[in-house]
Sequence to fold (393 residues):
Amino acid sequence: MRTTVQLGLALCVGLVACRPGDVAGTDAAPIMLAPGDPVWGLTGAQRNLFGRGRLVFNREFTPETGLGPLFNSTSCAECHEAPLAGGRGDEIEVHATAYDPAGDVCDDLAGQGGPVIQQQATPALQAALGITQEPFPPGAARAFRATPTVFGRGLLDAVPDAEILARADPDDRDGDGISGRPNRTADGRVGRFGRKANFATLREFNSGAFLAEQGITNPEAPAEGTIGGAAIPPGVDPVGDPEIDQATLDQADAFVRFLAAPSPLRGGDNERHGSDLFSQIGCAACHVPTLRTGPSPIAALSNKQFAAYSDLLLHDMGPDLADICLGLATPAEFRTEPLIALRFATHFLHDGRATTLDQALAQHGGEAAGARDRFKALSPADSAALIMFLKSL
Fold:
């Protein structure tokens, strides 16, 4: 019988070089992690917090428990749902910002309701103002956003800034056509979350999502948003702020933080050939196969190598995919999307415009144009092997 470590090493074949110490398991613990599983190695208290956080993630909020008055969803799991809570969704959001190319200045239109434009309103707000969604800021650039998975985000959060910055090459000094750069927050921290990497930490992303997506104020995002820049009318929001307490926020954050990255599937020689092609045609230049976390007070997240398939940097994807700016990210720049749990996706790219992986690859532009063209030049057999590999992630 093969030991767990031997099985773990087999999972690495054809993907990345790995050592026994990189395998996140022992003979007494499973290696293969399914969607919705927690990361391996949590303490009993952490697993308990993860379970309570799942309940918060699945909770359906109502106006009487803090929902709205503007919102996109009634629960976290309403959007992050497939194949289980924490996965992708079929909802498409609307975002808006304004970009001044002359001064390279991005306005997130926070004073006009941006950058997330909520698509639903509570009955009380509808009665008060006669609107069913937030008004779109006049003259703003519009973007659509598909709902991503949040599997493995605690691992991404634990990757040291130095590992991200080490791969940045904004001036393309090596001449390979790839010039990734970090986005940064207003106070200079390295961004990594969001399609434009405009959030520096998972904690900020999670607390901000409660407010932006559900209209739920919390101790770390305590003020209600506006309605197109205007104050909320009196009487439409019956719950005092913050609408969830610190313990509830901590539980939800722990659930997202402790969600594992589902283990990639491993097949035969054809799939391993696809993995080789992924690197050979240049996809791995941005979709870096593995990242390693740094030291963490959470042992289960500390010094772990995992299949991320991202460098967490911004890359220019060309004019056809360009939409809005955010932070330092210009309209054409997007953070390299992690390919964690890619096999469960049914639509692709930041706005879900592609319905197959072939379409998604063919629509890459800008810095990815070379890899795209090399993909298009593959033989049918090689193309099928590459797609088979991607469908194993």
